[in-house]
Amino acid sequence: GQAGQMMRNVDTANNANLDNILANIRNKYVPDSAGTGSPSQMVEGVQGAVQKQARALERQVSNAYGAVGKSARVPMANVKQLPDRVRTALREMAVDPALTPATANVVARIESMANQPNVTALSLKAIDGQRKVINSAFGSAANPADRKALTILKREYDDWMDDSFTNSLIKGDPKDIEALRTAQSLRAAFG
């Protein structure tokens, strides 16, 4: 009857709306698809497009980091502040080799980096290398508490780097410093 016809009309309108939504997604994210394919094929196309964009951004980040020359350095007086900043940021976390092994390992590495005898400055490549160690530690984090502590540690490390830029504590060729800033902003966009 009348109720059945109304339901069919709603169903037809919903299907038309869904088709429009899928077409818009397809056109936006997979413009070469010529409007054909099932939703699962469209998802595969979107996934491929996103992966292609991610690879291109990863190449940009890698190229930007590669442009950072050896002249850019961070004075050890600034580097020596980092362990205290990290410990302060982690004060509410129980950083312990048994409970948070990945975090404890990274903290020890940061302390070692900051307490090198007879070193007056560290290269930006060395500083960035430590950031890569922090990022890779997420893969070996033992539990959610370890991952949370690493997140806090990484945030503080990045804040320390930002403060170093802001306070002009990084010395060296301005082109090298700008290349690192570009690389860091791309890395932030990339994740």
Q: Could you please describe the fold and organization of this structure?
A:
- With 191 residues, the protein is mainly α.
- The chain has helices spanning 2-29, 39-66, 76-79, 82-89, 101-114, 124-137, 144-166, 174-190, and strands spanning 73-75, 121-123.
- The protein has a two-stranded antiparallel sheet.
- The radius of gyration is 25 Å and the shape is elongated.
- The model has no long low-confidence stretch (mean pLDDT 80).
Note the overall shape.
Answer: elongated
Q: End-to-end distance, in Å? A: 56 Å
* Widest sheet: strand ordering: 1-2
Helical amount among residues, as a percent range? over 70%
Helix and strand pattern: HHEHHHEHHH
DSSP strand tally: 2
- pLDDT below 50 for ≥5 consecutive residues: which ranges? none
Give the helix/strand class: mainly alpha
The number of helices is 8
Report strand %: under 5%
Gyration radius, in Å = 25 Å
Main sheet specs: 2 strands, antiparallel
Task: Give the averaged pLDDT, no decimals.
Answer: 80
Structure, briefly:
71% of the residues lie in helices and 3% in strands. By secondary structure, it is mostly helical.
Q: What tags apply to this protein structure?
A:
191 residues; 2 strands; elongated
